[in-house]
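Dear Dr. L.,

I hope this message finds you well. Following up on our conversation about the binding site, I have prepared a predicted three-dimensional model of the protein together with flavin mononucleotide. For your records, I am including the exact sequence and ligand specification that went into the calculation, followed by the structure tokens. Please feel free to forward this to your student if that is useful.
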Amino acid sequence: MNTVIIYKSKYGSTKEYAEYINRNIPDSELFSVEEFDIKNLNSYKNVILGSSVYAGMTFYNSFLINNWSILKNKNVFVFAVGMLPEDHPNSKDAYKQIPVHIRKKIQYIKLPGRVVFSKLNLFEKFIIKMIDNKEKLGVADMVDLEKANSVVFFFKQEK
Ligand SMILES: Cc1cc2nc3c(=O)[nH]c(=O)nc-3n(C[C@H](O)[C@H](O)[C@H](O)COP(=O)(O)O)c2cc1C
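The resulting structure of the complex is given below.
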């Protein structure tokens, strides 16, 4: 296998994007970060990391930093999934948490996420209400799998 997709998802929307990318890149393998065996990282040419964003935090920051000595020689694409658009200050700050020398060498995209309010715990409901009041976003169901095509096309070219 040429390509590995490693994702972290709490409520399933990031997993849906990861599965979509997996279906559309024929020689790819899919793992959640919890099940992925880090010893196998070096065997792939292409690495796709997908993470939901909670309070500006993603799993891939530490993953990129801790494994950069291996990843720097690979094609790396990171996709973040969240309810705030890519040009929102919160999204920009989350992106800037990736060290500059790593940012320069990877591809990045933010994809629209989904909030199913009834599934959230009390604390999460409170946070969402606060963000929603401030941003006037409306709690949305916005997963749009087609938007993940830029990830698919990139690796079809790189193959
Ligand atoms: C408590 C909480 C905090 C969140 N914080 C952010 C955030 O900082 N930025 C963002 O874009 N989306 C944020 N979201 C939205 C989630 O990233 C979005 O629902 C995403 O689709 C969840 O992915 P998952 O279904 O894979 O867990 C937040 C959601 C919750 C419940």
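In brief: The mean pLDDT is 92.

With kind regards,
A. P.
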